[in-house]
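hiii, so i know i said id send this last week but things got crazy w the move. better late than never?? heres the sequnce for the chain we talked about at the cafe, plus the structure i predicted for it. fair warning i was half asleep when i ran it
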Amino acid sequence: MSQKEVELILARELASCLTVPIFLVDPAGSLLYYNEPAERILGLRFEETGEVPLPEWTTAFVPLDEGGAPLPADSLPLVIALRERRPAHRRFWITGMDDGRHAIEVTAFPIIGQADRFLGAVAMFWEVSNDAGHVLGNAGLAGGAGA
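okay and structure toks below
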């Protein structure tokens, strides 16, 4: 990371040590980092993407609602945390760069440093399963295996 705030450097270091998928963005919304557990869901290693501007990452991973319709960027928890500077949570589906579909829950929150400095936002996410313990994947999408 080139010349980033110490809080962002520490957030990236923490994310690299956790098994929870984590996505980190700067105040402009540019993707700064996602960890190895996130790579498995997103379908692409971070080393292959590097830093990515907000308009690109909000569409690259194809977020979908329960009916299979594309979600607008403004409804994504990480974008809400970034623009409104408040926590947000939502369940939705994504199609990763490897064309794999994943039902995920995302909780995002802004990173606010000392002296009220807005430094970006973090999203933690995980694949969700139905009550029987099966990962939802395509089952929740219209036309999917469980529709």
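btw The CA atoms of residues 55 and 113 lie 25 Å apart. thought thatd interest u
miss u guys!!
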